[in-house]
Amino acid sequence: MILAQFGWMVQGSPMRFRGAVTGLAAALALTLGAPARAQLEIQIVGGGSNQIPIAIAPFEGELAAQVDLSGVVAADLRRSGRFRIVDSPAVLGMSVDAPASDLAGLRGRGIDAAAAGAVRPEGGGRHDVRFRLFDAARGDQLTSGAFGPLAAQLRATAHRIADAIYEKMTGERGVFSTRIAYVVKQGPRFELHVADADGANASAVLISNEPILSPTWSPDGTALAYVSLQSKKPVVYVQRLRERRQIAVANFRGSNSAPAWAPDGNRLAVVLTRDGGSQLFMINADGSGTRRLASSSSIDTEPAFSADGKWLYFTSDRGGSPQIYRMPAEGGESQRLTFEGSYNVSPAVSADGRTLAYITRGGGGQFRLAVLDLETRQVQMITDTQNDESPSFAPNGRMILYATQVGGRGALAAVSVDGRVKQRLSISAAEVREPAWGPFLP
Amino acid sequence: MRLFHSFLAAALALAVAACSSTGGDQPAAPVVDGSASTMAGGNGPAANSSANAPIDVRPGPGANAATELTDPKSVLSRRSVYFNFDEFSVREEFRSTLQAHATWLASHRDARMLIQGNTDERGSREYNIALGQRRAEAMKRTLVLMGAAESQIDAVSLGKEKPRREGHEEADWAENRRGDILYNFGSVKEF
């Protein structure tokens, strides 16, 4: 019986951060009342090269606001693998209103940039949050921002600030404000969870005594499609996250599975067996308008759209073993993409359409995440884990979230596309599986 | 289970209270699907069973036949068919069992059968759903050739999601490469 409520905990972070997160989680556990609040641990097990050294000053007023904004920003940047957080005494007391003359002290401290911020309570439960990012060598302001969040949104504001810093320093969009979905199995109980990208703010959106699999986000991040076996067979459901209702969008004779949202948000690719065999269909998000996409006597499954909606990637055993193919999303000739090995499944495509992530079976029978450069056709194995499953790209294409086994138990892991940055996300005494990284939020 | 339900109720009440009091970015309370109740046929949300309907304990129309289905001495109590690794053809040793089920279905046209295909734990979840489907459909094809009506049988797959044995040895995998037969007839409601 999963009655205990735990707080989320982030490992490998400064003490000030850890304390604040645990306290916040306890408060959230009270307000959200989500069952089975298990303890998620994020471990950073590898770092990138050429990390940008950066100092984050404690935000003025964050102790009174009871949210460790600077700690959340620092943890986000560190977790990306692209930053090294430097605790420099020169920035400890740095003010968000620092005049240029104060910034001279940042020079020669071994940091490229420094950020300062402040949070002040305003009327109506709102807070005034401001931050500035400075070039440490030249003392210039690189970027700044101001926000007016409610107390419950302070943590989200910290992620926005981390996104702004990340984008300014790397030229790429940050994913710290995105969310992830995953399935938690504890004993006979299955829960579909949604959490912030750092594992905080987790809540269950579906609780079942039957397996849940293949969650996938709608392109606007407001809904999930998934497969549940709650009626003794696979049925595809869509659940809007702000409502409690689940809608069976594909509940035909036979099995209904493998939903993939089309980028237009109105349609899903699904696998139906109503006419015999596992075949690809398109269906409207309300369950109307079924249309067959391809016809084969083989297994066709695991559809995944390219971000531009032009291509549909899928797994098929039409060549005698499961391999990854793609076809025009409106139907047409298929093209085989994987040739090495006798078992290549579970395709996922990066947002820029350049990289295909998938699972390949190696000689020793282990299942590993692989990435294929779709231009050069070069294949790379980028994990040191076994029994990898279900890859899912971050919306900026930088990291891949996937399921694996750690110590014989299901856990999630994330790896950068170049294989350098590695993280493990696990929940004690529970299996975590079937991750899906959500889209950028507006 | 009562403790479990009252906990859920309390959790839901808390979550609802949180939503109404903050009105902010709080997610809605989770859907608790109550997996015990089955889905209505066709598309649409789950049908709620009526709490006011009386409980009828009278024997159904197929009471005697139902005994046949559940009697451990009857061949019809054999409900599992096992498959070789990466294969979906029905092995010779299971044909007599399937023939008994086909003959019984042919003489009980109101009966409905659900075949659930299963796989071992290796490989992708969705690809295993497809492999389990092939096994269930192979069993269904055999039953129809032996005299059952196509419309009586739904072939579905649970993939690797509901392993009978949780171990990771070949013996566990062999047990999990399996198709199971469930019946709906009279008082027997297995799905």
CATH topology descriptor of the largest domain in chain A: Neuraminidase
What is the approximate shape of chain B? globular
What is the domain total for the residues of chain A?
Answer: 2
Number of strands of chain B: 6
CATH structural architecture of one domain in chain B: 2-Layer Sandwich
Biggest interface reads: A-B, 73 and 57 residues
What does the average pLDDT of chain B come to? 80
What is the name of the CATH class of one domain in chain B?
Alpha Beta
The CATH class assignment of the largest domain in chain A is Mainly Beta
Q: Which class do the helix and strand fractions of chain A yield?
A: mainly beta
**Residue share in β-strands of chain B:** 15-25%
Q: Largest sheet of chain B, if any?
A: 5 strands, mixed
Strand content of chain A: 35-45%
Structural class, from secondary structure content of chain B?
Answer: alpha+beta
| Unreliable stretches covering 5 or more consecutive residues of chain B | 1-26, 36-51
Count of helical regions of chain A: 5
Helix percent of chain B reads 25-40%
In CATH terms, the superfamily of the largest domain in chain A is: TolB, C-terminal domain
Which keywords apply here?
A: 442 residues; Neuraminidase; 2 domains; five-stranded antiparallel sheet; five-stranded mixed sheet; disordered N terminus; B: 191 residues; alpha+beta; 60s Ribosomal Protein L30, Chain: A
In short:
Chain A has 442 residues and is mostly beta strands. Helix content of chain A is 12%, strand content 41%. With 191 residues, chain B is α+β, with helices and mostly antiparallel strands.
Task: Describe this entry's structure for a reader.
- The complex is a heterodimer of chains A (442) and B (191).
- Chain A has 442 residues and is mostly beta strands.
- Helix content of chain A is 12%, strand content 41%.
- The model of chain A is unreliable at 1-36 (pLDDT under 50).
- In chain B, α3 crosses α4.
- Chain B has 191 residues and is of the alpha+beta class.
- The model of chain B is unreliable at 1-26 and 36-51 (pLDDT under 50).
- Chain B has helices spanning 2-22, 63-70, 95-107, 125-145, 170-176; strands at residues 31-32, 80-82, 112-118, 153-159, 178-185, 188-189.
- Chain B has a domain at 75-189: 60s Ribosomal Protein L30, Chain: A.
- Chain B is globular, with a radius of gyration of 21 Å.
- Chains A and B meet through α1, β8, β9 and β13 of A and α1, β1, α4 and β4 of B.
- β9 of chain A pairs parallel with β1 of chain B, so a sheet runs across the interface.
